[in-house]
Design goal:
about 200 residues; mainly beta; five-stranded mixed β-sheet
Length: about 200
């Protein structure tokens, strides 16, 4: 059962539309997949069925940050991106369902016309490794606020970035034992149009 959680994630970039028409939701996805942890999902809420969420990004002019009180869970069989999650393994390794990952619109390996999630990061400010079990920055807070910045994205005209029946696009899952905070930036192509007004 989903439970919406208020959160201070609110910076959004949208080409050609008023910012107030778009929002961000954090929903409780599951509890106790890993003992003591709650799994949350972050969604971009759009207003049109053909709006397209292409990326989540940060740089020195539009910083992005994410922090938790006690870090976040990365399963040893998980992946940094949802496109690396093999859903068929979850019944045999249930804690995979609590893995933390980045995404645009998908929750496991891409199928059909869906595409894998891509990322670009500043080597001085890596963030992908925070979602990799066993990495030196596994589960750590991260910021993307350098001039080079960073982004996770999909290209326009792929089904990943289109909203579900609730007009939402999934962009991240994380599991944690405590509180969390963040500031995210999103690029939304209104009605799927990739040009800027």
């Amino acid at each position: 059962m989903f439970r919406l959680i208020p959160l201070a994630f609110v910076l959004l970039y949208s080409t050609g539309a008023a910012l107030s028409q778009y929002s961000l939701s954090v929903a409780e996805y599951a509890t106790e997949i890993v003992p003591g942890q709650t799994t949350y999902r972050i969604y971009v809420d759009v207003i049109n069925t053909d709006d397209f969420v292409s990326s989540v990004y940060g740089n020195d002019e539009a910083p992005l940050h994410f922090s938790t009180v006690d870090g976040f869970y990365n399963d040893p069989l998980g992946a940094s991106f949802a496109s690396g999650i093999i859903a068929g393994f979850i019944p045999f390794f249930p804690t995979m369902a609590a893995d933390s990952w980045l995404t645009i619109g998908i929750e496991s390996q891409n199928q059909g016309d869906e595409v894998a999630i891509n990322a670009v990061e500043d080597p001085l400010q890596p963030f992908v490794g925070t979602f990799q079990s066993g990495s030196p920055i596994d589960g750590a807070d991260f910021s993307i606020d350098t001039q080079a910045g960073g982004v996770w994205y999909v290209l326009n005209n792929t089904p990943n970035g289109l909203p579900d029946e609730n007009l939402q696009v999934l962009v991240m899952q994380f599991s944690t034992t405590g509180g969390f905070d963040g500031l995210f930036n999103f690029q939304v192509f209104v009605n799927g149009v990739g040009s800027t007004d």
